[in-house]
Amino acid sequence: MTIPPIERKIRSGLPLIRFMQKYIPVPVTNFLLRRSVARVELGEGVRREAVSADGVPCTWLIPENGRADHVLLYLHGGGFVYGLTPLHLKMGAYLAREMGLRLLMVDYRLAPEHPFPAALEDSVTAYGWLLKQGVSAQDMVVAGDSAGGNLTITTLMKLRDEGIPLPAAAACLSPATDFTPKENQRPGFEDPMIPPKAVKLYTQAYVGEDDPHHPLISPVFGDLHGLPPLLVHAGEDEILREDAVRIVRVAQSAGVDARLEIYPRMWHVWQLNLDLPQATRSLDDIIQFFQTHKNVQNPTPI
Known about the structure:
By secondary structure, the chain is an alpha/beta fold. The chain contains 9 helices and 8 strands.
C-alpha cells in the first residue's frame, strides 16, 4: 500500500515527539507550550475567550454565528502532566466551526503537583458551571483525547453518581482507560510516539498514592451503566488501542450505546494533525455522531 506524502511527513516527526517525552523535563515543555498557546492563530471564523468556570481556567472557542445554547465541553490530553497545546486549540476550533457551537476547553490542574482526583474535579466543576450558565445537559456533549478521554468517561461516571444530569453524548480519542501495569499487553509492540518511560511517568504522576484499579482512575474497572451514547476512536498503531477496545466492551456490557472505530496505520491522537485526511475523517465522524444524538445542527447564516 502506498502511504500518502502528508502521512509519511507527519509520521517522520513522531520520533522527535517520542524523544522530547523521554528527555525534556515536563516544566520546560509546559513553559514552551504556554508561550506558543498565547500566540496561536485559530484562523477565520473562530475567536477565543478566557473564562473562569467557578475557579477552573477555561478557554471558549466561539465560531461566527454559532449557537450560544449548545456547547461541546472538551478535555485535552497530555498524560495529565502537559497543558493545552496549539494543536488542541486548532482541533477545537475545527470542531466548533464545523458544528456551529461554542466549545469550552478545560485547562484542568496538572500532575504531579495535582494528582488524582484534581483533574477530574476540575472537569466536573466546569460541567457544573455550564449548567449554572443555563446550558441544558441535553444541549451539551463532551469529548476528550488521551488523558482527556479518560476524564471524559470518569466525569460522566462521577456526574451520574452525584445525580447530575448527563450530556447527550460523549466521544473519546485514544482514551487512556487502564493505569494498571500492562507491559505484556502487546508483546513486541513499540508505540511510535509514546515511550515506556513516559507512560510510567504519567502513571506515577497522576495515580500518586492511589490504587490504579480505582474505577475513577481506570474506568475499565468501573460500572458504566446509565452513561450516554459513546463513540471511541483509536489508532491501529498505538499502545492505547487495547484500552479503547476494552472500555467499549465494558460500556456495551453495561448497556451503553457504544461504538469503536480503529483507524489503520494511525498513531496516538492523530486527529491533532488537521492536514491529515484521516484526522478530518475522524473528526467529521465525531461531529456526525454528536449531531445524531442531540439536536445540534449547523446554524443558518445570518
